[in-house]
Amino acid sequence: MEGEKITSMRNNGSLKKVKSYMDSMFGSRSNSLIGWLRIISFMFVLVVSSFTWIVDIGDHESFDALLWDFTMRAITPWEIEASMGSFP
Q1: What is the pTM of this model?
Q2: Which domain holds residue 27?
């Protein structure tokens, strides 16, 4: 019982530190929000590229080319027509 209280207090203390850090980071400037958006966006592109490469549904010869293509599509979106590409 005593050990559970100490663990709970440690988790609560570390949770408060994380909340405080996040509040100060997001409350300080919009640059941190843009930075987090960049990180999350790149992680999403990386996950989608990895999935596409593993399942082998892309027409790219290398993973680098696939990652570059998906990154460019995320940064500068353009129209993708139904006639472009082919479904395996």
Answers
A1: 0.58
A2: 2-75
| Tokens 């988790």, residue located | 11
Q: Is residue 80 domain-resident? A: no
Q: Give a yes or no: residue 83 inside a domain.
A: no
Domain contains 24: yes
The Cα-based distances of 42 to 17, 46, 48, 72 in angstroms read 27, 6, 10, 11
| CA distance linking residue 65 with residue 80, whole number of Å | 18
Rounded to an integer, what distance in angstroms lies between the CA atom of residue 69 and that of residue 24? 36
Q: How far apart are CA 72 and CA 77, in angstroms?
A: 7
For the chain, what is the domain count? 1
> In whole angstroms, what is the distance from residue 50 CA to residue 61 CA?
14
pLDDT tens string 41-59: 899 999 999 999 999 887 8
